């Protein structure tokens, strides 16, 4: 076990600078040296502009001022994701970040709602969720703005942000804590002849950068984890067949304010994202090349923008899946170097975040052990598999028959783990979350119900409460949600007061 005194991060972008900012905290009280290598000549993918609530905690952990970060990254608030045309063409639903109601007598809210619905209560389940209703009316507030007594439902939120600007913001944070940035490309990797560990990387100017632990943030190439160590890759295209994307920012020429939610609109062979920033929209079309050509995908995207494109289209190719190991010897892969799952549920930045969290939790500066590597890989594989299943649900739970693509995903064989979840929900609305699974009971219920997976019955424990008592409980929840949303300002007004970004800032490529 060789002590860790030098950490080298290969690659910048969101993954590299998130890692640098978080690891910089380890420098306090130690002689640890952290170096990040990146080249301005190598572009970043830059399409991961939507986040989920745990990302808020990441920034809080670094003591980052939320207002300052949001203004620098032209960020807006995000309450959930709207899915359009997924179950059937013309359908729409929101996957909210907060819960539907709250458990009653230990039984999930959607169980009680189903009982009331069967008895004639016509209120949609969305009426009992503050994030959905605020998103629908274009409003926003943080919990601390109105809920000091704790008697009203909290607001769970994340951000839409310009990933390139966010990385630049973190660069300033990390360099201010003595992380050293080196400009240039890595052209060679040296391995120890006995252990197989990476000992150094050579840059294009001939300089060698030695390290004890290497963090691979080199993107799809996997410069260290794959090209140097030959780790291997598990291909999931049989379950998530989209393998292309085209990204394109645009202005909002219709004068509409930025919505407090991400929109994912399904098309004939994939889907389109719309991420509203303060002064533009981030857009992209994820599609399957087996069923759609690049030109057609580009035309569909351009014809569904809110304004004129502000850059040239960025075409991306990817293979959905994961590395067979995320930590191999003394290399830890983060971001696209670790694997790729399309940004359908905004999990790209989240997986960087949790990868960093696991690395810091397991890391010992006394050296690297097999136990650390094994634990990191086991935890990360579980996380990837659970997210994969949730994404597959969006495609498989559909009634669409209008294209070969939808016919394939609707009828494909799905993992047993997902098939069991769907069957249990269909039977009586039961949802089992395993260990520290990312997606909540409401998340699973929102997507299943939103895409037509109906509950045939409900948990009999929900029948214990009398009908009048249940109605009173539901009325109270609905009134609380309405009270909070009615008093919220518009999302646009909140941004203007809280974290305005200068309109003169140049658009990131």
Automatic annotation (TrEMBL):
One of its GO terms (molecular function) is nucleotide binding. Keywords: FAD, Flavoprotein, Nucleotide-binding. The active site is at residue 78. FAD binds at residues 12-15, 186, 336, 349. PANTHER family: FAD-BINDING PROTEIN, FLAVIN-DEPENDENT TRYPTOPHAN HALOGENASE. It comes from the Bacteria. This is Tryptophan 7-halogenase. Pfam families: Trp_halogenase. It comes from Tsuneonella litorea. 7-chloro-L-tryptophan binds at residue 78. L-tryptophan binds at residue 345.
């Amino acid at each position: 076990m060789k002590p860790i005194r030098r950490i080298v991060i290969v690659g910048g972008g969101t993954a590299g600078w998130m890692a640098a900012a978080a690891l910089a905290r380890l420098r306090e009280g130690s002689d640890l040296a952290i170096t990040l290598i990146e080249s301005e000549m190598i572009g970043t993918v830059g399409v991961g502009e939507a986040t989920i609530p745990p990302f808020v905690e990441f920034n809080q952990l670094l003591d980052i001022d939320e207002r300052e970060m949001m203004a620098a990254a032209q960020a807006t608030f995000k309450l959930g994701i709207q899915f359009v045309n997924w179950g059937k063409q013309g359908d729409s639903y929101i996957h909210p970040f907060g819960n539907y109601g709250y458990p009653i007598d230990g039984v999930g809210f959607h169980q009680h709602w189903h009982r009331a619905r069967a008895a004639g209560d016509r209120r949609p389940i969305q009426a009992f969720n503050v994030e959905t209703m605020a998103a629908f009316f274009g409003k926003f507030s943080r919990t601390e703005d109105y809920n000091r007594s704790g008697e009203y439902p909290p607001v769970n939120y994340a951000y839409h942000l310009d990933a390139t600007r966010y990385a630049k913001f973190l660069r300033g944070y990390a360099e201010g804590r003595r992380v050293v940035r080196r400009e240039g490309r890595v052209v060679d990797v040296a391995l120890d002849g006995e252990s197989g560990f990476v000992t150094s990387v050579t840059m294009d100017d001939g300089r060698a950068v030695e390290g004890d632990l290497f963090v691979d943030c080199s993107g799809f190439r996997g410069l260290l984890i794959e090209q140097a160590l030959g780790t291997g890759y598990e291909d999931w295209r049989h379950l998530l067949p989209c393998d292309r994307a085209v990204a394109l920012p645009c202005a909002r020429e219709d004068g509409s304010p930025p919505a407090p939610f991400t929109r994912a609109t399904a098309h004939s062979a994939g889907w389109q994202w719309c991420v509203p920033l303060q002064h533009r929209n981030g857009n992209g079309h994820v599609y399957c090349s087996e069923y759609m050509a690049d030109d057609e995908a580009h035309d569909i995207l351009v014809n569904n923008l809110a304004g004129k494109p502000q850059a040239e289209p960025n075409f991306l190719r990817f293979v959905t899946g994961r590395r067979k190991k995320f930590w191999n010897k003394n290399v830890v892969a983060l971001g696209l170097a670790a694997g790729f799952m399309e940004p359908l549920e905004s999990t790209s930045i989240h997986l960087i975040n949790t990868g960093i969290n696991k690395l810091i939790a397991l890391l010992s500066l006394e050296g690297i052990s097999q136990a650390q590597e094994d634990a990191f890989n086991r935890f990360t594989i579980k996380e990837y598999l659970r997210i994969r299943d949730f994404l597959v649900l969006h495609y498989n739970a559909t009634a669409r028959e209008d294209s070969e693509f939808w016919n394939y995903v609707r009828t494909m064989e799905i993992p047993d783990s997902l098939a069991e979840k769907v069957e249990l929900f269909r039977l009586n609305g039961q949802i089992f979350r395993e260990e520290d699974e990312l997606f909540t009971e409401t998340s699973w219920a929102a997507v299943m119900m939103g895409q037509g997976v109906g509950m045939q019955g409900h948990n009999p424990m929900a029948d214990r409460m009398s009908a009048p008592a249940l109605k009173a409980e539901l009325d109270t929840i609905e009134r609380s949600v309405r009270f909070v949303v009615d008093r919220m300002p518009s999302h646009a007004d909140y941004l203007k007061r809280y974290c305005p970004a200068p309109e003169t800032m140049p658009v990131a490529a």
